[in-house]
Amino acid sequence: MRIIQIFLFICFITFSFISCSAKKDDSGLSELYEMLNDENISSKTRYGIVNRIANILHLDEKYNEMILFLTDWVETHPDDEYNSYWLYMVAIDYQKQNADKIAEYYFERILSFYPDLLVGGQSIHLSCLEHLIQISTDEQNRISYFKTLINNFPSSVSITEMYVRLALEYEKEGEWEEAFKAYKLFLEQPDSSTIQIPGIHDAYQHARRNVDFAKSPKDWTFESLRELEGAVKKAIAAYDWRSLDKYRTKVNFFAMSWKSNETDANAQESFSMRNYMRGNRIRFNPNLDESSNANEAYLRTTGWNTYINVWYFYFRKINFPSDPEIHGRWEWAGIYFGEKM
User: Fold this and answer.
1) CB proximity list for 89: less than 8 A, separation 6 or greater
2) Are the beta carbons of 264 and 193 closer than 8 angstroms?
3) How many CA atoms lie within 13 A of 257 on its CB side?
4) Are strands 310-317 and 330-337 parallel, antiparallel or unpaired?
C-alpha cells in the first residue's frame, strides 16, 4: 500500500470545508484556475490548489461543478498521486445527495484502480470499504468487503465483529459451509463471548449454536410439535426418564429461571431427568400454554420437588436452513423453573 502524508489541516472523514479560508468570489477561482496551468508548480502546491477549488465550489453549493471539476481533473491527470482522494471527495458528495449507487461506483473504482493514501492518518481504502458496507445491498459484494477488511486491515477493525458479520452475509446467500467456517473463526477470538455488536443480538450464542448444531447427530428432533408434545407427555406419564433424556436437545439445552438468560453459564444443563422423577408425583397440563405460537411452545408441569414445584418445558421450531431435512422440525430446547412471568 502506497502511503502519502498530506497537509495536517485536512479532515479526512467530514471534509471540514468550514475551516478553510477560501474566498468564494469568481475572481478567486479564476486566479486558482490560472495557477493550475503553471507547469512549474510542485505537486504539493498543485494539490493545495485543486483542494481549494473543490472546497470553494462545495461551500458555494455548486456540487455538480465540484464533481465535474474533480472527475475531469482525474481524467486529464492520470498520474496525479492524489487521484484516489479526489474521487473519494466525489463519492462522499454523491452519498450526501443520497445517490448511493453512484457513490458506490466511485468507492469501488478507487479500490480497484487507485493506490491507497493516508490522509490525516486514515486509509482511504479503509474508509471506502466502511462506506460500501453501509450502502451496498449486494451480498456477494458485501462478503468481498468484509473479507478485504479482515485481510488488509486487521489492526484497524474488530476482527471478531468482522467474522460474525461475514458469517451472516454467507447465511443470506445460502453459503452454509462458508458461514460455519466464519462462525468458527469468530468463536476462536478471545472476546467472542463478551463482544457487543450493534444490531446483532447474542452473537456468541447464535454462532455457538450454529457450529455445535451443525456437527451434532440431531437425532432428538421431531417432525412436528404434536409429535414432540405427545412423546414428552407419554414419557412423563410413564415416569420414563430415559426417554426424556433422549428427547431433549444435545446442543445448549438450558434449565433456568424466567429472569435468567439462556447464555448464562449456569443456565446450560446436562443433568439426567432420573434425579428428579424418582419419588415425585409429576403432572402436566392437558394443553400447551396459551402463549405458545407457530415457533415456540410451553408445557406446564408440576411435582418436581418441594423447592420449585412448577417447571415449564420449552419446545422450539428448528431454524437450520442448511439442512432441509432438519429445518422446520421441533426440539425440546430447555426448562424454565417457576410460574410463567
Assistant:
1) 15, 54, 66, 70
2) no
3) 4
4) antiparallel
233 and 301 Cβ atoms separated by less than 8 Å: no
Count of other CB atoms within 10 angstroms of residue 181? 16
DSSP state of 257: E
CB 180 within 8 A of CB 215: no
Determine phi and psi for 332, rounding to 5 degrees.
-90, 105
Q: How far is CA 218 from CA 9, 21, 53, 247, in A?
A: 60, 68, 66, 10
- Residue 53 contacts residue 15 (beta carbons within 8 Å): no
pLDDT digits (tens, 9 = 90+) for 45-96: 888 999 899 989 888 888 899 999 999 999 999 999 999 999 999 999 999 8
At residue 203, the 3 state secondary structure works out as helix
Beta bridge partners of 312: 300, 336
Handedness of CA 242, 247, 252, 258 (dihedral sign): negative
| DSSP assignments along 123-158, one per residue | EHHHHHHHHHHHH---HHHHHHHHHHHHHH-TTTS-
Q: What average pLDDT score do residues 154-163 get?
A: 96
The SS3 assignment for 298 reads: strand
Report d(CA 74, CA 21) in Å as an integer. Answer: 24
Burial class (CB in 10 A: 0-12, 13-18, 19+), 291: exposed
Instruction: Give phi and psi for 267, each to the nearest 5.
Output: -85, -20
Q: Say which range, 1-15, 229-243, 246-260, has the weakest mean pLDDT.
A: 1-15
Instruction: State the pLDDT at residue 272.
Output: 85
Q: Which residue is listed with cell 414445584?
A: 309
The residue among 102, 53, 46, 107 whose CA lies nearest residue 77 is: 46
Q: Is 28 exposed, middle or buried (0-12, 13-18, 19+ CB in 10 A)?
A: middle
CA 320, 324, 325, 327: dihedral to nearest 10 degrees?
A: 30
What is the rounded CA–CA span in Å between residue 154 and residue 123?
A: 13
Q: Looking at residue 115, what is its pLDDT?
A: 94
Side-chain-side CA neighbours of 86 within 13 Å: the count stands at 28
How many Å apart are CA 153 and CA 135, to the nearest integer? Answer: 20
**Measured at the alpha carbon of residue 326, what is the angle toward residues 164 and 165, in degrees to the nearest 5?**
10
